[in-house]
Amino acid sequence: MTEIPEHLLKRSRDRKAGGASSEASSAPVPATTEAAAPVARAAAETPAQKPVSKPDAPYVAAAKSRQRIPYWAMATLSLMPIFLFMYVRGLQPQKAEASGPIAIGIEQYGACASCHGADGGGGAGRVLKDGESQKTFPHIEDMLNWVYNGTEAYEAAGVASYGDPNREGGAHYPRSYNGSAMPAQGSMAGGGLTDYEILGLVCHIRYDISGADPAGEWAEEYEKWCSPESAIFMGLEDGSLNFDSPELAGVGTAPRLGTSADQDIAAG
Ligand code: HEC
User: Fold this and answer.
1) Where is the composition biased (Low complexity) (predicted)?
2) What is the pLDDT of residues 223-249, one digit of tens each?
3) 120 lines ligand 1 (CB under 6 A)
4) Which of 102, 106, 107, 115 to mutate for ligand 1's pocket (most ligand atoms within 8 Å of CB)?
5) Number of structural domains the chain divides into
6) Closest to 250 measured CA to CA, from 229, 228, 230, 225
7) Is the dihedral of CA 268, 234, 182, 211 positive or negative?
């Protein structure tokens, strides 16, 4: 509460005293004068008394004096939008991480999009999305071998079909789509991509475009070939491995028959 300056108090007292008397003089009932006089006297006798206002109830006073948001909470609250953003992101199904092989695949996919569509929906080349890639190639090794070589190398080698010979809807064999050829992509087959770029593309197609679940059914394959920590990818990238290395268990650069889901890739 603020101190009221003495001169103001005095003025108020004087006015009260004067007012009371003038009121008394005009008042028809003389009793008022007697009632007003002690009040004026009492005011004069206690000069230091502060004007009394009705005190707040304890709970009102507490509410008034309490700080609305503590300072420490303000710091926390200011981060709320970021928490919210992270929370909402956490709710969305996460795509395979965009680093390692998949990042390379995303970068290179323009080389395939002209025939297979930006979303893998097909066109001059076959449909790659909606699980098609895993249906044709239950083993990633067969897909790598196919993309490396392309149609003509398979024809030249006399290989009857690529991918799963028991594929739903029948095996895919060279020129069985619309009669045109899939160009070779691997360096020794006449294409312009390195082995690690081909792996990156195949990973991007399987996990992003064709929707394989890297945390579910395809987790083992994903960890080995397509995760950012894939030792095979790193080996291909730094040149210590290539598609003919024994560590790549049967990818190979020579066209060969594909394998079905229940077949062991090494025996294929
Ligand atoms: C000039 C057009 C063209 C381009 C460019 C092209 N493809 Fe193809 N692709 C085809 C055709 C045509 C087929 C079917 C081949 C056949 O029937 O012999 C095919 C088939 C495929 C298949 C087999 C799909 C299945 O389920 O049978 C894969 C996988 C594939 N392509 C991946 C790629 C990748 C990866 C790239 C980019 C590096 C690429 N293609 C670039 C035309 C193309």
Assistant:
1) 18-48
2) 999 999 999 999 999 999 999 999 998
3) no
4) 115
5) 2
6) 225
7) positive
